[in-house]
Amino acid sequence: MQRAKQQDHDVVIVGGGMVGAALAARLSHAGISVGLVERGSPPTPLSGDYDLRISSLNARSLAFVKASGTTLPEERCCPFRHIDVANQDGSGHSLFSAQDSGMDDFGIFIENRTLQYALWQRLEHLPSVTCYTHCAPLSTISSSTARILELDNGKTLSTRLIVGADGARSTLRELAGISVSSYDYHQRAMIINVETELPQQDISWQYFTPTGPIAMLPLPGQRASLVWYDSHEATHAREALDDEALMSAIESTYPKRLGKLTRIVARASFPVKRQHAKRYIGKRLALIGDAAHVVHPLAGQGLNIGLHDADTLAELIINGSDPGDKVMLHRFECQRRLANQAMIAATDSFHHLFTGAKPLRQLGDLSLHLTERLPFAKRMMMQQANGLNPFKMR
Ligand SMILES: Cc1cc2nc3c(=O)[nH]c(=O)nc-3n(C[C@H](O)[C@H](O)[C@H](O)COP(=O)(O)OP(=O)(O)OC[C@H]3O[C@@H](n4cnc5c(N)ncnc54)[C@H](O)[C@@H]3O)c2cc1C
């Protein structure tokens, strides 16, 4: 890519969360001049107890993060090789194994803050990135050759492309006049970090109940992150329980394979919604990550598809001549909207099949039975979920 002479940066990214920081690291690793605008402080390192927010990173996301020269602390990463999906009453069951899908593992679980911190550490060593913290955009205008971004600290930046990675309530999306379609699942996801008598193995499991799924995501050692989806009322009632009572509630609902709980480390709950921006692009502007789409978290794909947006955009920018080129931005939108729409539809059907009325749940059971009996379908589903092309010959 040719360097911009008259602009402050080739690319300005608003939002230094996991997706924005990953794009900044990848582009500046390739020598592109980047400005990263973050309204908060730079992330701080974690030690001791595990943070509440954790995410799965699939093969494509991991490869993208590593392509920027970022290293993740192995001791806080938990690889997983199996995914067990079942109905709580045992009427439907499917076990996915990485080996059967032609992969070594399905990826890792990592704390959001550990990933964000590792990316920001990498940024510190990259000379072509400048981080502007404790500030946010006030306004933006575009010409044929540049975008100007006015920040609330009095600074003005000019760039050839501005990228909104500022999360579900994106200011940049609003400033660009891009609206969203949204849907409320009328559910909350309660996340509970626990310590257990048994060490976790390399498996993540999810059981569907008529009120919502319950899931166990493994963390290194004798730790796990539990996710309990339920109505707002039931979740608030559970949040009011003391640790002893919450442990009993978990032990009476979660399968015995979880083992005995020894400690509740942390807990919080989040509303479950989906949202999709009507457009991902504008004049010299692109949206990525949660700024562009929010999916039901039950399949653990929200961050992954955000990182895949960043990966696609980075490749187009690195191999192009102008990062704000209209044709290039259209190519980005075409590729990513199709993939993200498919993920939104898949997670939506999972939700309705397993949490809907009884006939739908019976259909859900049947689909698990069929999947279990069709190794080819299982392999394709897992490769798709890992951001790999299931139709590519090995
Ligand atoms: C319960 C739950 C479980 C989940 N589990 C998984 C999982 O296992 N796997 C997975 O792939 N995904 C998962 N997700 C989804 C994942 O957490 C999100 O998709 C991901 O955090 C989005 O990252 P982001 O960088 O796009 O946005 P954010 O994480 O929201 O980051 C946005 C950044 O922009 C900054 N910002 C905001 N506004 C401004 C502004 N005006 N100016 C400057 N900076 C600004 C913020 O401070 C922040 O740093 C889960 C989500 C939930 C709710």
Key terms:
single chain, 394 residues, alpha+beta, FAD/NAD(P)-binding domain, 8-stranded mixed sheet, 19 strands, globular, binds flavin-adenine dinucleotide
SSE sequence, one letter per element: EHEEHEEEEHEEEEHEEEEHHEEEEHHHH
Structural class: alpha+beta
Query: How much of the polypeptide forms β-strand, as a percent range?
Result: 25-35%
On the 0-100 scale, what is the average pLDDT? Answer: 90
Total count of strands:
19
Radius of gyration over all CA atoms, rounded: 21 Å
CATH topology of one domain: FAD/NAD(P)-binding domain
Instruction: Please name the fourth-level CATH homologous superfamily of one domain.
Output: FAD/NAD(P)-binding domain
Percent of residues in helical segments? 25-40%
CA-CA gap between termini: 32 Å
Count of alpha and pi helical runs: 10
User: Major sheet, described briefly?
Assistant: 8 strands, mixed
CATH class membership of one domain: Alpha Beta
Would you kindly provide a written description of the structure presented here, covering whatever features stand out?
α1 (18-29) packs parallel to α3, α2 (59-66) packs across α7 and α8 (326-355) packs across α9. The chain has 394 residues and is α+β, with helices and mostly antiparallel strands. The strands form three sheets. Strands 1, 2, 8, 9, 10, 11, 17 and 18 form an eight-stranded mixed beta sheet that branches. The chain has helices at 18-29, 59-66, 112-124, 171-175, 232-239, 243-253, 302-318, 326-355, 358-373, 375-385; strands at 9-14, 34-38, 54-57, 78-80, 82-87, 93-97, 107-111, 129-133, 137-142, 147-151, 156-164, 180-196, 203-209, 212-219, 223-230, 261-277, 281-282, 285-287, 293-294. Mean pLDDT is 90; it is low at 390-394. The chain has a domain at 9-78 and 107-181 and 274-365 and 375-385: FAD/NAD(P)-binding domain, CATH 3.50.50. The structure holds flavin-adenine dinucleotide. Residues 14-20, 37-40, 55-56, 136-137, 165-167, 171, 189, 191, 270, 289-290, 297, 300-304, 306 line the site of flavin-adenine dinucleotide.
